[in-house]
Every structure is written in C-alpha cells, then in structure tokens.
Amino acid sequence: MDEIKKKAKALGQTCIKHRRYFHQNAETGFDVEKTTAYIWAQLQTLGYAPKRVGKNGITAEIGTGKTLLFRADIDGLPVREKTGLPFACKTGNMHACGHDMHTAILLGVAELLKGCEDKLTRKIRLLFQPAEELLLGAKDCIEHGVLDGVKGAVTLHVLTATPLPVGTVIIAEGESAPSADYFTISVKGKSCHGAVPQNGVDALAIGARILLALDSVIAKETPVSSRAVLTVGKMEGGSAGNVIAGETTLQGTLRCFGEPTRAFIKKRIEKISRSTANAFQGKARFFISSGCPSLVNDGGMVEFAMRALQRGYDKEKTVLSSALGDGEKERNGGSEDFAYIAREVPSVMLALCAGEKDKGFAYPLHHPKVDFDENALWQGVACFCALALEK
Question: Where in the chain is the domain with CATH 3.40.630.10?
C-alpha cells in the first residue's frame, strides 16, 4: 500500500490543477454544465465510458465483482468569494464547502485506479453528483438508478479550521450529520390603511408572534439530549410604513439528530403557526420545500473503513470521532444529502482534515474567505484507493 500512497502523492499537482479549474468555475445546483463537461472529458481521456445519471450527474465504473460506490458532490454555493486567491471565482458563486476538493479527489481516484485495475477485487462506481447544497442531487440520482447493484457506498467531506493535521481522517459511529428541513410559513391577514387598523388583520404582527413562539420549541419543549437547531433567517411582509400588512412570509431551517425529534418539531412548528394566526384572526400555512434525513454511518462500513484506512492509508491519521477530545471534535451542524444513499445501502462518510487553524486556514465552511490546504488532495485520493483495494 505504500506504493499506492506514492502514486497518489505523484498525482498531487494534477489534482491541484483539477481543483483550481472547478474552483474558478464554481456552479450551483443542477446548473453545472462547465463542471460536468470537464469531468466528462477527463474521464474519457483516462479511458472510462462515462454515463449521465439524472439531472447532470455522471457515473463511471472500473473493475468487476460487488459494486462499491464512491461519491463526490460537485456543486458550489451562491456566495461571493472574498479569498483573494489568484484562481478565485468571479461569477458570484463559490466552492465555499469544498466540493471542488471532493471532485478533484475523485478524478484523482479515477486516474490512480486505472493504473492498478488488475488489483481490484470489486467494482468501483464513481458518482459525480450535483445539487448537494440543495439537498436534492442524491435523491435525483437514486431515482435514476445510480444504486442499482450497489452493495455499499462511501463519501468524503473536507474540514478546515481544525486543530488536527492535514490528512487526518475522522469517522463517526452512528449519526454523523443532522437531518435538514427548509421550511416556509405563509401568513395571510387583511391589508388596510394604518390609520384604521381595526379594519385589517396585521399579518406582520402575526408573523412576529410566530417567530417568538418558535423559540420555545427548542428551549422549553425539546430535551437537552435531543440535539436540534431551529432557525428563522428570513421574514418579509408589508409594502409601506402606513399600511397594515396583508401577507407575511417566514423562511427557516430545522436541523436534528434523530428522526423522532425531527418529526416532533415539525408538528410543533405547524401547530404553533396555525394556532397563533387563528388567535389573531389570520391564517397560516406551513410547508417544507426541501430536506434530507440524518446521515447514519453503517456499523459494518465503519469497521471496513477503519480497517482499510489503518492498513492501507495511515494508522495514526485514521481515528474514530469518539476517540477525539472535545477541542478536536468537529462541531459543524451541516446536513448532507448523502443521507439518502445511506438509507438505501450500507454507507459511511469520511471527514478529511484539510486546513489547520494555526497555519492560516481560519475560516469555516460556507464562509466567503474559506480556503483549503491542497496537500489534502492526494491524501484524499489515497484514502479512497485504500478502500477500493482492501481485500
């Protein structure tokens, strides 16, 4: 396996080239035409026969036997970049979550595996998936057959601003990412002139009361052991300072560890919204626009990944999250639509440290100044290949 690590390291500059192209040309959601064109061309050059899956997903296969899926998400965020990097994206989008790193790593895996295809004891299916940030891409790929014949799946997510050395791989036992639900509460009242408020129903005031009431769901109704975050980040209503608002909209997110907690809080949001609106002679409608369940790492896949990485990657750099001290544990509450894949087949998500805080990588994921240590790229390639070549 030392040979594999050497080969992965030799691909470092190639992976950097890939990463910087993706970074400079960040695209969002399913609208990833430049990104997929580049991936397609690279795979064909390497001798693969890529295929489309769903809305702008790409798959490619190598080897024979039981199928193990390796997935990389390829979309960016609608964030205006402020890194000052020479290859910064100037379109108003940004790879602020590191998906450019993920995509470059998987292309590196594709290249390395081509050189040792005779050593593979299983089939590897590569998936380049769009729209992870919308929590829609994995579901779309599943609906278009990406898991047909798949016996297990692996994904990797880079971390930055960590105290741990670059290349450290963290594996969580059980739940590794919370569920997510993006919701809207639409409030209807009755508009009228501000001088005669008795003739109207103030939707803005109702919305404000709903907003304040929702604070009690986490603070007073949810056990401290049930980890959940409820955020209302946008509230709109009214058209003029002297007009009672006839409509108000609140938008927010709910993130939970544990499906029972998730179901309970969603019911409470809906009940509080409707009953508060009714109490003040208005109406409210609650609906969820998108979301995903919590991501649960399969026990067998955790054991497989630990064994393969400790044997074929780096024993000292492969750790279970439960073995980390409080100061080293990743506290990010970001959700992950790989959860849909994990519901269908035994799966595991690896966390790859890609930026030490005391070495200048100080900004967290989704920040307009976030950056990643490109030395993590070849190490990510080595991780995937250790799994691919494990007996």
Answer: 2-178+294-389
Looking at residue 354, what is its pLDDT?
A: 98
Closest CA to 153 of 84, 69, 231: 69
Please give the angle made by the CA atoms of 159, 348 and 65, to the nearest 5 degrees.
Answer: 130
Q: What is the CB-side half-sphere exposure of residue 338 using CA atoms within 13 A?
A: 29
| % of residues, the chain, pLDDT over 70 | 97
pTM of the entire structure?
A: 0.91
Domain with CATH 3.30.70.360 in the chain: 185-292
For the chain, first and last CA: distance in Å? 12
Question: Is the model's pLDDT at 88 over the cut of 60?
Answer: yes
Q: Which pLDDT does position 323 carry in this prediction?
A: 79
* Residue with tokens 């949001």, as numbered in its chain: 269
Tens of pLDDT, residue by residue over 182-211, are 999 999 999 999 999 999 999 999 999 999
Q: Taking a C-beta distance cutoff of 8 angstroms, is the pair 200, 244 a contact?
A: yes
**CATH code, residues 2-178+294-389:** 3.40.630.10
* Dist CA 160 CA 287 (whole Å): 34
What confidence score (pLDDT) does residue 334 get? 81
Domain 185-292: CATH class, spelled out:
alpha beta
